[in-house]
Amino acid sequence: MPSWAPLQAAELFLVDTPQRPARDGTFTPLSQLPVPEALFSGVSQPSPSRGRQEAPLTNLGVDVDQFWDQEAEDSGSDGWDDVVDEVYEEEISPTIRACLRHRCGVPALDRSAGALRVGGAYAPNDCYFTEQEQGHLGFPLGSALEIVGPPGIGKTTWVLNIAMQERLYHILNSLQLALEDPAAAFDSDEVDWDDWMEDNVLPWCAQVVLADTEGAITAFTLLQLAQETAKNAMESSVCVEWRKNLPNAYNQQYDSLVRSLLQGMHLVQIKSIGELLAFLGVAASSILKVPGLPPRTSLLILDSISFLLNTHSLDPEASREQRQGRLQALNCVIQAITTLRDYHIPEHDRLSIIVTNQMATRMPGERRSDPGSESVLVPSLTTAPSMRSSFDTSAYDWGPSILGKSAWRVLLFYYTAQASR
């Protein structure tokens, strides 16, 4: 297996890091490795701050006025180091995002996923809410969702809506808490709403990372989606309370909400397998608290995972080594995704992963184990079929998702000739 930075963390920091044996004997999830001591040697680490959902509403924000108002005494030095250390301790305390579930926008699917108590790789499969605790909606943190379907079915559009709704849910949740906080009160519409959101709402909101391998996601598309999402959100009960007794604040608050939505959406354009491996390698390093993904990232979307890794991306005359390299790259991608959604990571640091997977036509006789006479439409990246259907020669058991047995797979298809999905 080629070297892969996140899984070689012990070598990077030149320390002996004991590894816990993996369950399947192939690799050890990075989240189960201790943080290398050499990374933080000689640096005093502040204790993590409590999240917005736990902290008293009267103790929000970081007070650094003392730094600007006081002057250091002349003691033979400029006194800069002591003051900087004090502010450094305050500002780097991590802000914990709220542990909100992810909603896909399909009520039946959200209700089904809401029955699960926990999510993530290596999570117990039989951990459900009791009848008294039922009523949750959405996927638990750490979930993996694979969306497959033919070209033009709307996979990218769906994942973009999920991403925008994820950002919106966190903004509305933090906005509700800010409206209940006396320290964030306002009594007129002469307020810079961008600054107010920056101080009282956005520091506690989750962020979303979009990794685009096809070039189908543009900044203009995100802007249009953010404008439509903000327009609908302005009629919600939270936003109505926000502009209560402020008849002239609608337009300013709407513009601020659009900017707040886009501020937490990070688009990464990936054009090669090397860039894909580098991006996921840096992303997985976030588990070691090494700067990788943006802070408070809760959702990573990869559109699509098959564009650079399917068999048709190789030259028909590719050598055996090149084909093995493709499989090794795919294994590294899966390991990075598994690392990010490991059940052993604290819930407020765990990521959910959504990938889109293209579909391809498998021609008859393409495989020796497939003597069928009909062409079938299958995911471009999938595990080997575990069995052939006995009642329909064109149906296959695709096996579990390439993201693992705990992943959800959703198949999009046209329901009628009128292109109803």
Automatic annotation (TrEMBL):
The keyword DNA damage applies. GO terms for biological process: meiotic DNA recombinase assembly; reciprocal meiotic recombination. Gene3D superfamilies: P-loop containing nucleotide triphosphate hydrolases. Keywords: ATP-binding, DNA damage, DNA repair, Nucleotide-binding, Nucleus. Residues 39-58 are annotated as: Disordered. Its main location: nucleus. It is found in: Nucleus. GO terms for cellular component: Rad51B-Rad51C-Rad51D-XRCC2 complex; Rad51C-XRCC3 complex; replication fork. InterPro entries: HR_Repair_Mediator, P-loop_NTPase. One of its GO terms (molecular function) is crossover junction DNA endonuclease activity. It comes from the Eukaryota. This is RecA family profile 1 domain-containing protein. It comes from Malassezia yamatoensis.
